[in-house]
Amino acid sequence: MTLVSVAGERGVTTLTLDAPGNRNALSASLVADLAEALTACAKDPGVRAVVLTHSGSTFSAGADLKAPPNPYSFVALLRQIVELPKPVVGVVRGHARAGGLGLLGACDVVVASPESDFALTEVRIGVAAAVVSLTLLPKLEPRAAARYYLTGERFGVPEALRMGLVTAGDDALDDILDGLRKGSPQGLAESKRLVTAKVLETFERDAEELVQRSASLFASAEAREGMTAFLERRDPEWVW
């Protein structure tokens, strides 16, 4: 059973992360299913744009700690979104955490409903927002990035707009999609190449080092304590 549902309407294909019982956590299976769906969108001349959204109350809770994806596979997925020759619009109507923010950073446009909230929670389980930095740091306001990388605090849509994570409220979605439908396939693809060039430079320069850093952190004793504490719903040993 696929963990990503697909629907199309007037040239826009909607890909829905559809594992609500697991808060759409980024398991190896979900990452593979999303990559497959994106590949199909890239090849389909009838697809003008892609919407990436979710079922349930959570866009994505980040990495599935019980069945995490290979970090190279996740990097490949993020790059696939960035390089897709069709615009990708992220739609959040709920919570987004950790690796889920990496997916949003890879999208070209992100809209969010007023009740949505966000957090980079990696620091609280003994790791860092390493791989997701490939899509986030080129786009986020530096002071805001420092605060939320370091504290793991939850923040809402107004702050997400200010720092560059979110483009607009979800009431702008119809206008955005109507605008994309008016663009030519070539015009959209070439315009996207222009606006993603700096992000792709980051992939070329930093991807390998960040994958290695992430793997090292996840294998550490401190991370094992953090992940165990998370799964056991208790504070890790370093919390005062």
Automatic annotation (TrEMBL):
<dbReference type="InterPro" id="IPR014748">
    <property type="entry name" value="Enoyl-CoA_hydra_C"/>
</dbReference>
<dbReference type="InterPro" id="IPR029045">
    <property type="entry name" value="ClpP/crotonase-like_dom_sf"/>
</dbReference>
<comment type="similarity">
    <text>Belongs to the enoyl-CoA hydratase/isomerase family.</text>
</comment>
<dbReference type="InterPro" id="IPR001753">
    <property type="entry name" value="Enoyl-CoA_hydra/iso"/>
</dbReference>
<dbReference type="InterPro" id="IPR051683">
    <property type="entry name" value="Enoyl-CoA_Hydratase/Isomerase"/>
</dbReference>
<dbReference type="Pfam" id="PF00378">
    <property type="entry name" value="ECH_1"/>
</dbReference>
<protein>
    <submittedName>
        <fullName>Enoyl-CoA hydratase family protein</fullName>
    </submittedName>
</protein>
